[in-house]
Design brief:
By secondary structure, this protein is an all-alpha fold. It contains six helices and no strands. It is 82% helix and 0% strand.
């Protein structure tokens, strides 16, 4: 099951890279959102789902305003690091990578 979860997360890394190369902001942000949703779904936590249902639209708007451009290759590299660390069983390292990814909004 865990391997399928990681494969699902990995599927959105390549489309994000392609969207960035093609300067397609809609596709890049959509791939980024799908990547994060894989982890939210895996958490299977109703409280997290409820909180994100309220927060995600605001975070999406803030992200687009703050960046005023495409999400960068740094986000794609961070996503890849999350997947690699999780696949290696390095939960602490994956958690650190997730935190670094989210802190790019600040």
């Amino acid at each position: 099951y865990f391997e399928r979860f990681l494969q699902r997360a990995s599927r959105d890394v390549l489309p994000a890279k392609q969207a960035l190369r093609g300067a397609d902001p809609r596709a890049a942000f959509a791939a980024d959102s799908r990547f994060h949703q894989v982890f939210v779904a895996r958490a299977d936590n109703a409280q997290v789902d409820s909180a994100l249902a309220h927060l995600t639209p605001a975070v999406d708007r803030l992200e687009r305003l703050a960046i005023r451009a495409l999400p960068g290759g740094r986000s794609v590299a961070q996503h890849q690091a999350i997947i690699e660390r999780a696949a290696a069983g390095n939960a602490a390292g994956a958690g650190t990578a997730v935190r670094e990814n989210w802190l790019t909004l600040s």
